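DM from R.C. (forwarded with permission)

"hey, sorry to bug you on a friday — could you get me a structure for this? deadline for the figure draft is monday and I only need the backbone to look sensible"
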Amino acid sequence: LSLMCPSGLEPQKVTRFVRALMEGRNYLLPVDSSEFTEFLSCVFYRQPPLPRWALAIGLRDRVPHYPFFETMFDRLMETDQRFLLQKSLADIETQTLALWGRFDEVLDSSGLEILCKEIANCEGHFLEECGHTVAIEQAAAAGNHIKSHVLKHHQAAVVNIR
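My reply, with the result:
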């Protein structure tokens, strides 16, 4: 099992993203290029330089999915759903790899400590110079951690990884 910056944990501190949600703003649902730039600065440690036309395309491609995102965020903010993963961590028995961007401004990186403490067989790693988008910002490092974890703990299930 691999977990990358999962929601559902009660963090030690409120992040920029969660603070904005509590104030009624959702960085993940931008409506114009200015808000889309704010969204990118929230999810990336180092925001990729994007020309204005690329921002417009990124925004245009997100908008059709807003009903799904709004429903998801509304459900995640419900009291009985908000920390649902944390309530189930002790039930996870499989070898688990947890990765977290050290500078995640969406979900507090203290979640990594929670995962490693509550899951009996958990190996955790912070990815430096990385925000919430672990698989994008540190793709090689994340991939190497996953490959190493699979080779170390799931050798019987591995047919051929090269």
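R.C.: lifesaver. The chain is about 45% helix and 10% strand.
me: no worries. The helical segments are 16-22, 33-43, 52-62, 66-76, 84-88, 111-118, 134-137, 139-153.
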